[in-house]
Design goal:
Distance between the termini: 35 Å
Number of helices: 6
Strand content: under 5%
Largest sheet: none
Shape: elongated
């Protein structure tokens, strides 16, 4: 995980992570939930995925990376800024729950 964060092409993000508290915050997040063992192998081998399913999973990974960047920047915000960003996050649509519900429909 540490290697991944060092390769991120965002100099400002790198400066945020250079602070010890922020680096620890970013490093504890771990691998993606569908790949918790840390290997490069898929955890599901029973059915090949379509290109569209793989593309959607990549979008979800991009969202997770963005949320890691948000978490890394949180310590730099004032209490008022954190409250406004939290409110904005809660109002954002669609949210993860709505997408999960759409995926659960059979």
């Amino acid at each position: 995980m540490g290697i991944f964060l060092k390769k991120m092409p965002m100099p400002a993000f790198g400066r945020l992570l250079s602070h010890p508290e922020n680096a620890l915050l970013a490093l504890h997040l771990g691998p993606a939930p569908y790949n918790e063992n840390g290997s490069l192998e898929s955890t599901r081998r029973n059915m090949p995925l379509s290109g569209e399913a793989i593309r959607l999973m990549n979008y979800i990974d991009d969202v997770a990376v963005t949320l890691r960047r948000v978490l890394a920047a949180v310590p730099t915000l004032s209490a008022e800024e954190r409250a406004r960003v939290a409110e904005h996050l809660l109002r954002a649509r669609p949210n993860a729950e709505e997408v999960a519900a759409a995926l659960a429909v059979k």
